[in-house]
Amino acid sequence: xxxxxxxELKNDLILKAAKGEPVERIPIWIMRQAGRYLPEFQxxxxxxxxxxxxxxxxxxxxxxxxxxxxxxxxxxxxFSDILVIPQAMGLIVEMVPGTxxxxxxxxxxxxxLIRLIQxxxxxxxxxxxxxxxxxxxxxxxxxxxxxxxxxxxxxMSYMIxxxxxxxxxxxxxWLYKYPEESHKLLQMIxxxxxxxxxxxxxxxxxxxxxxxxxxxxxxxxxxDNYSFKYLKEISEKVRQRLKExxxxxxxxxxxxxGATMNSxxxxxxxxxYEVLGLDWTVNPIEARKRFGSxxxxxxxLDPCTxxxxxxxxINRSKNMVKMFGKTxxxxxxxxGIQPDTPIASVTALIKGIHSV
Length: 356
Ligand code: CP3
Description:
It is a single chain. The chain has 356 residues and is an alpha/beta fold. It contains 15 helices and 9 strands. β5, α11 (220-244) and β6 (252-256) form a beta-alpha-beta unit. The chain binds coproporphyrinogen III (CP3).
């Protein structure tokens, strides 16, 4: 398939950093940079429900561009949600204000697996591809566009738990009670994720992030068996498919939030992802020591740092860069930005990073 033509890229800092090349300035983007802390986002959300914004390319694209217009960021990330995959597989997902995502009819036991459909990604999630293509044009090459997905375990845990949880016990029980069926479900989800990421690259995504947001529920054995196995397959098969279709590869970021240091080390040294995203609990100096010299690291300022004074935010941002080093590094928070974050704090963070 011929690739779509897009405006020439003016800022390739994040792509260079992701490939391990030296950069003249450290790239920064912020997880959930398009979101509720922005009044212009709230304005759109007051008129449209969450998934309508995701499903309407003009709206998704507008929201994606909001933080780019306001801040000196080095990447954009397409506005969507990881839960569009469970939706495409036939489950109802509602975004309940104040609660978060709710799946009213979760997968309770293996007999429920027949309710899941293997979607036609190019058709059923076409709206995401269309939003990506439109956004690439509207960005006019200002910064690269990141595509993303949830990883298999994180999506499986939402599908079983039926929403967020501080323990995810229903989902974790499955891993012990129904190991075979757990693998069956993870494989079904993985197959969809692979099609979905390939589609995003074809549509114009220049970098891909895989969110394993629920890695914090897994010990080393469970991570290896139920997360790493599929993270690896996703990376390998996406690259293979792109190669077969003569489409240039894009760098890939894995963000296993809350994974143990051992699990992070195994993932980093496997070289399946160019970039490893770290949450704020990981010590950058120890990460550099343990994860090898090839891996590019991304992160990891505690999102709550953004409630400190602007001076403190700038100092802590500079200190973070000092700990990670200036090469093989992409600055970010250690998780998504909080909805009530002061806007001036975001400006201070970017200023701090760019001043190094
Ligand atoms: O700017 C961006 O980062 C792109 C958009 C984006 C959203 N969700 C929009 C969103 C991205 C990358 C995600 C990923 C996502 N969604 C993850 C992985 C990252 C992470 O946080 O670990 C997860 C676990 C989800 C599932 C999800 N979606 C949750 C738990 C919630 C509720 C929590 C919350 O912040 O409200 C959502 C809702 C959601 N996704 C919002 C946004 C802007 C807020 C909902 C609203 O506007 O009402």
